[in-house]
Amino acid sequence: MQVGTRGSNLAMVQTKSIITSLSKLTDEKIDVNVVKTTGDKIKDSQLYDIDTKGIFTKELDRAVLEEEVDFAVHSLKDLPSELDDELEIVAVPPRESPHDVLISPYQWDALPEGATLGTSSIRREAFCRYHHKDVDIKPIRGNIDTRIKKITSGEYQATLLAEAGLNRLGLTEHLRERFSLDYMTPAAGQGALAVIARKDSSKKNILKALNHKDSYQEIMAEKKVLEVLGVGCQWPLGVCARVQEDELKLQAILLTPKGELLSKHSMSGPVNQAEAIGLEIAKRMGEDCQ
Asked: If you average pLDDT over residues 39-48, what whole number do you get?
């Protein structure tokens, strides 16, 4: 089998974890095909200034469509809300932490006034405004290692990252503070991986064995909110579902880029109603924004 992935350290670690799991299910040899995406080539601008969908995924998806690879591994939050008609998410492995975390020599409440905070996420920037943080927000790009070095070197005083990436790369010693899901609600799919394949792939049954039911239901609820609201990386939307026993709780918050609250809702229900819960939350948020 051939698997497509981005070439960053994190992408490679994520893909190797999938290969390790697959090796327990099949004797097939699995080769890695590294694909450079549009997002990997752009280093000097805020992501939300770039008007393109699937900036980190479309080249990989094209490789799957053209059968250059059998499947691709994505960070789920990079996926556009709608996939190509010939593709599907065949598996969502067990989800890592969805939390955002602070990387800084300072605690969040002790950040000096005017401290330089690096982020290229409109959601994280809006949450800083929402919580009235007096910081100087500047773009920061590069892989996780690069961003951490920009903090330790003093180029920036702080940055916000996904805890999942630190966990997967073994970099948790740099974690200064973890934010609650209510205080800094993550992007849809944060902490989760998506295994993408053609709908007609002969490998689907093997790949589907990687699926983790609760993680899959969480991201289905979150993606439904994105899909119905029609917002992507150009809008500050935080949305997160968590499954406990047989109940799914979904919370979502939509801000303006300046951090003003537009809508905030939460709802709980049976796990098997995940997409219906996402649809109801999206409808309520849509009504708030009319």
From this structure: 47
- The answer to whether the beta carbons of residues 63 and 4 sit under 8 Å apart is yes
- DSSP labels, 216-280: HHHHHHHHHHHHHHT--TTS-EEEEEEEETTEEEEEEEEE-TT--EEEEEEEEEEGGGHHHHHHH
User: What is the C-alpha separation between 271 and 245, in angstroms, rounded?
Assistant: 9
Does the annotation count 100 as an active-site position?
no
201, 71 Cβ separation under 8 angstroms: yes
User: Alpha carbon of 144 to those of 7, 19, 244: distances in Å?
Assistant: 13, 22, 30
pTM: 0.89
Longest dimension (CA), the chain: 57
Query: What's the distance, CA 285 to chain centroid?
Result: 21
Sequence-distant (≥ 6) Cβ neighbours of residue 272 within 8 angstroms: 217
Note the pLDDT of residue 54.
53
Q: Give me 155's structure tokens.
A: 């180029």
The two tokens of residue 108 are 């969040």
Angle between helix axes 213-229 and 274-288 (nearest 10 degrees) is 30
Convert the pLDDT of each residue in 143-201 to its tens digit.
Answer: 899 999 999 999 999 999 999 999 999 999 999 999 999 999 999 999 999 999 999 99
Q: Which of 61, 78, 100, 214 is catalytic?
A: 78
